[in-house]
Design goal:
Layout (H helix, E strand, L loop, with lengths): L1 H10 L15 E2 L1 H11 L1 H25 L2 E17 L4 E18 L3 H68 L4 H36 L6 E2 L14 H11 L1 H21 L5 E12 L7 E11 L7 H67 L5 H36 L5
Parallel strand pairs: 1-4
Antiparallel strand pairs: 2-3, 3-5, 5-6
Amino acid sequence: MLLLVAVAHLTVLPAPLPVGLQDSLPRITLAEALERATQLDPNYVSAVRQIADAAWGRRAAIAAFIVPSVTAQLSATQYSSAFFNIGTGEPASTIVDARLDGRLNLFSGLSKVAELQRTSAELAGARAGELEARFTTALLTESDYYDVIAQRELTGVATERVRRAQEQMAVARARVLSGAAVQTDSLQLLLELTEARVALLRQQARLTVARYQLARRVGAPGPVDAVLDVTLTAPALPLTLDDAIREAVELSPEATGVRASQRAAEALVRSARGAYAPRVDLFGLVTATDETFFPSAVTRSSIGVAVSFPIWNGAQREIALSRATTTREVARAFRADIKLALRRDVVEAYEAYEAARATSELAAQAVVVAHENLRVRQERYRAGATTIIELITAQVSLSEAEAGLVQARYGTRLALSGLEAILGRRLF
């Protein structure tokens, strides 16, 4: 009797913690999360700014063909004694000079052409980097978003486990009091109820952390809940594995970026070789001299062509060419490695999705089987045809099957996002 009293006393435990103040939390859809995350992710912001930098570099390379470099200079000098001022034709102690100097390069080997090619390749690489960064941000955001959904569903699974344990506890206590079961049945169920409540507390903590992580991703000051506005079903992929590999190697943002990097490196070599060619510049100069601002006493202009041929500059050209060649060789090796790495990454993501998709279907069947098994065990226990251990095992198996289904669906979404991040496009 003392044991029964203790069991009855211990079973009056505090109610499980709520799943979360879900109704009071701000909620966000996946589309909103993706839009806000791209504005906040430092890597994506950096990728966008790199496009602007590369675009300016390309404009400068184009302008070098038609726009001269222009320098304006104005100087005023005060001397201790007066001397002849060429502008006024009289002695003066103050001389004011104004100069406008323009210079246009007419020929410098292939340097300007190579610079245009290099900047064009850098712009293409920056655009590919922006696309890659966007899908990387999307992958991280979807991971945090679906983690909230998964943790919320797992919290529901843990809550349901507590509810089932409480129901079975009431049934076991009634059977013990009626003499249809031994006292250890209540103790076994009390242990299961305690473990279920501990698991629920831990799961609630994981859910809270997941909501704060999603808040960080979207720039919210407090926890954010995710709206399940998309289907968690896993349809068949719209392309074969061979098609996915071919697309990744040829069209993916990473492949496009490394090709652009190689083109830029090859153009850098051509530009370095152009330093060995003679340089031809067209220049013009306008000067004005006076003793007051703005000088206008005497104005002279000149125009000419300057030809220079570099002979030796302390091996700076040779060093630049050697470094450019090294950069080109590294870029070639990196591109070859990326092609192989993309094949491996696509296979991994593709197979991960297929495996997760099959696992989801099997996990759904396992939940149905676990439900039926628990129902049978409950009926048999009420009839005294099975032991409490078998009943508890069926309860735990059902909770594990439900958790496995949640994890399988979560894994399917992550695998799909990973494959889309590699290909640089949405598949559905």
